[in-house]
């Protein structure tokens, strides 16, 4: 029997991109599921892009775990800070992941060095208004995302260890990602060119802001990928 692969799970193609070269990812099919396969220090790797939101994340991880039993699932991508102070590109180390819809909490044991885990990652499918941020901060929430709780639940139900590596790409406090901006991307995480064109016609003054958001997201995706790769390299072979 071959060694259990490490599984890298992203919501969007841009989050997977900085992993592609280090892992030598190539398109493949495993158990009837379209994935990307590669290696990390000669250890087998499988990677998937689920699409954005809890439903697509749950569907994607269920398909993956139905096709292969990984030694560890690493959730990799970007996240939004709930404060004004956390620098763009900071990799967060939450102690908990909370599902906004159900209130269910998932205990997180971060891999690799970087200090003690603290606070919570809040998984939600809705844009969180600024008025709700103080209450979230009071609960220890440090960042917002749209997929991690769904992936954590599926992994826990199947007894597969998991960890999340997300880096700050924007701040929920600055209103830069509103509903209109959010819908500039399709559910699969790819930009919607027609929606972007319409948005720029309506808001030409916001072009510099969109450029900055893209640059910050790219930086955050790279930092998250780097952290995930560094931690994966430290995993004992018998844990994979």
Strand content: 25-35%
Separate helix tally: 7
Oligomeric status of the shown chains?
single chain
Q: From the helix content, strand content and strand pairing, which structural class follows?
A: alpha/beta
Mean pLDDT: 89
Integer tally of domains:
1
Order of helices and strands: EHEEEHEEEEHEHEHHH
Question: Which residues form runs of ≥5 with pLDDT under 50?
Answer: none
Looking at the structure, what is the overall shape? globular
Summarize the biggest pleated sheet: 10 strands, mixed
CATH class reads Alpha Beta
- Distance from first to last alpha carbon: 13 Å
- The second-level CATH architecture is 3-Layer(aba) Sandwich
How many β-strands, per DSSP? Answer: 10
What CATH calls the topology is Rossmann fold
Q: What's the CATH H-level superfamily name?
A: Nucleoside phosphorylase domain
Q: Give the proportion of residues in helices.
A: 25-40%
Cα radius of gyration in angstroms? 17 Å
Q: How would you describe this protein?
A:
By secondary structure, the chain is an alpha/beta fold. The protein has one domain (6-174, 214-239): Rossmann fold (3-Layer(aba) Sandwich). The chain has 7 helices and 10 strands. The protein has helices at 13-23, 54-67, 133-138, 148-158, 179-182, 193-202, 207-234; strands at residues 6-10, 26-30, 33-40, 43-49, 72-81, 96-99, 105-107, 120-123, 141-145, 162-171. Strands 1, 2, 3, 4, 5, 6, 7, 8, 9 and 10 form a 10-stranded mixed sheet that branches. A hairpin with a 2-residue loop joins strand 2 and strand 3. Helix 1 (13-23) crosses helix 7 and helix 2 (54-67) runs parallel beside helix 4. The radius of gyration is 17 Å and the shape is globular. It starts with 5 loop residues before the first strand and ends in a 6-residue tail after the last helix. 41% of the residues are buried. The model has no long low-confidence stretch (mean pLDDT 89).
């Amino acid at each position: 029997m071959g060694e259990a692969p490490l599984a890298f799970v992203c919501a969007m193609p841009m989050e997977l991109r900085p992993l592609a070269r280090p892992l030598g990812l190539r398109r493949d099919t495993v158990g009837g599921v379209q994935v990307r396969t590669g290696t990390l220090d000669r250890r087998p790797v499988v990677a998937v892009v689920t699409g954005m939101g809890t439903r697509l994340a749950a569907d994607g991880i269920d398909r993956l775990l139905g096709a292969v039993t990984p030694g560890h699932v690493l959730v990799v991508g970007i996240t939004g800070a709930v404060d004004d102070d956390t620098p763009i590109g900071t990799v967060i180390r939450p102690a908990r992941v909370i599902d906004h819809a159900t209130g269910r909490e998932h205990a997180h044991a971060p891999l690799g060095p970087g200090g003690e885990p603290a606070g919570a990652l809040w998984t939600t499918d809705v844009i969180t208004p600024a008025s709700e941020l103080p209450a979230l901060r009071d609960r220890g929430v440090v960042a917002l995302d749209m997929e991690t709780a769904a992936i954590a639940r599926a992994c826990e139900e199947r007894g597969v260890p998991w960890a999340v590596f997300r880096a700050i790409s924007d701040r929920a406090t600055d209103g830069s990602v509103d509903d209109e901006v959010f819908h500039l991307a399709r559910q699969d995480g790819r930009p919607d060119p027609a929606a972007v064109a319409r948005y720029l016609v309506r808001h030409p003054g916001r072009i510099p802001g969109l450029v900055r958001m893209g640059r910050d997201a790219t930086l955050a995706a790279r930092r998250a990928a780097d952290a995930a790769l560094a931690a994966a390299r430290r995993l004992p072979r018998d844990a994979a």
